[in-house]
Design a protein that fits this description.
By secondary structure, the chain is an alpha/beta fold. It is 42% helix and 10% strand. It has 26 helices and 15 strands.
Amino acid sequence: MLNSTGELEFSKENNTEISQLASLALSHDAASGENNSTGLPEKTGYPDSVYVMAANIFQGIRIEKSPEKVLIKYGSEPLQSLSECEDESVRRSSYELAFSALKYQDILETILIDSYIFPSTTIPDHLSSLIIVMLYDFQDRKFQARLLSDNEESIAEVQEVENLLISFKTKLAAALARYRIKHDALSIYHILPETVRNQELRASTLPLYAWINTCKISPEEVYHSLKKKGYHKVKSVPHIGDKVFAVDQHCYDVLIFPSHLKNDLLNIDLFKEYKLIFQDKSRSLAVHSIKALLNMDDDILMVNTGSWYTVAHMSVLTNNNTSKIFVCGVQSQAKDPKLMNLFTKMGCKNVEILPETFINIDSKDHRLQKVKVILLLPRCSGLGVSNPVEFILNEHEDTGLLKDFSQGGTSEDKLHVLAQQQYEQLTHAMKFTKAQAVVYCTCSVYPEENEAVVKKALEFQDHGIKVQPYRLSPPVLPLCSLKEIHLSTDKFFRMEPSEITNGCFLSVLTRERDPSETVSVKDVLARAAAKGLLDGIELAKSSKREKKKKKSKISFPKTSTTDSNGIQMKIAEFLNRETNANANQSETLAKTSLQQRNVTQVGSSTQVRKSNKPATNPLVPTLMKNTSSSRPYERPTNFLRPRPEDKMVALKPVEIVLPPVMLPFPSPQGTRAQMPTQHFYCRWGAPKTLVSGYLPTPSLSRRGEKPKENLSSSLPRRSRPWL
């Protein structure tokens, strides 16, 4: 039992002054309405179990002082609770009460000393934490009595402390008034550091974010259901006002509600049936970044997810894919049944939980060979979060971080430890050779946990393995304002803490593209066709012969041109030489006038020019004969039909001498003078054909072979005027 013998002695002194100060404190609190500024109902206290749980939490996170500054001694043993509470609302209330007592620890200890509760009463040390948390709630209720429920089970220690505080009600109120006057503060709230006050102000106005479970309901159905409940859709959500909601600009499946509507929203079926889920926006940004990097069959590895709602959101976004989600770090196997039951209720079917911690997983684990993207949500200081209790409950469950929140910052030593852990996890994630991207996301505002960790990991990444190195990629999220564009100029996505959102840092690391694995348009279409995405569309395929032709066309253009020019010159010289020799021979045999000989020369030169025309194309067979090891890209035309066996045969030139055609001279009698003169026509014959004698015959070509219609060798078939 608590001993309050000093209460009577102290009550005889300065009763008038104490009463005045107490009345001032109570009247000022009632007039200011500091606890009801947002329209919340008056507080009536908590159940006994909440006080006990809050006292144990405070015992573990309280600020320890040096021995010379210790005012109140705290015990080391926790209070015994009735049972392990699993109710979410009880746990949340306990953390909120413990965190509030932690923020005002110095003030509450001073009030207890100034009111002579310490050391005038004999209080066990293990109850000191309970007195602190209950005193904060007592002054928060303006020193009004607690309303108890009839079916509530009471705890003896809570009842004793409550009776003590009620007996010292007047003195506690007077001590609080003196403290406020001393610090010239309108309320106890204004005594807090400015950083803590700004954090509390943001928390009171921060909108609620909830993502739509599209496995169970469509966005249009959600809008219709909310409209039936009296909600209407707007472009932006005000802090106070009617029942409204808006769609987030970064995440198409996230809705925004005013903060004062939370209790009303929790009572509608959309939230009870897991069709709408409350969660901080930073986690939705992380999973949407992963979604933008995925192919249809890529697996995902999620590390340090904190809230299981993050895993569920990732599963919902990949519901139409064949992706599988691996999750690291289930803290205890006892949570597995409840967790899988939660996933079943939410419609998540592609989640597998790995019992190992992330650092202990081998980068070549056979289970993770199809993992292409890794989501890393490392444990961080979380100083970008406005509501630390929500952050602790949903993400870390590390009550020690509440101490940093209460002081408005993290110590350098602790920040260094966190940054080293983040660096180790990021470098380990970069060792998974099959992975192609890593998304790194924190709720911190410290560069030591954000940019410094990423840049260090990129700088010291292992280049010895046979994979492409990682590089920093631009954000895959839409940038919706000039401020966001400015904050993302260095390829990092940042959101500063504000009255509408918590702080967030997000970085996307992707492997550099391998030049040897450049994917062509045909390859993309082939993949799509293999997956059945191009039903009814046939893709044209290039034959091997076309590919060889392209290669030969690239390889031999200069050689063919050079050889053809040389061959043409040799053929022209040979024909001119033979033409001149035959012309001289014809002059000794015939007796004609000078004019006739001139006509003969004109005819000869004309035939020579005709013979030169078909002689310009025979370069292809000659080229094949000289370069038999390489195959030209085109077959010769205008000479022979292609053989059925698709083989090329080299041919040799054969000379055919025919008598000239004598043109008539103009004469009165109209007589026609003719002089036989030899003319040469060139034709290709098989290399096996040998000619005996001087004059060749048209039968020199290969037997059974039909000449082409446009060949010059068809000239002998014309009418012969000399006959």
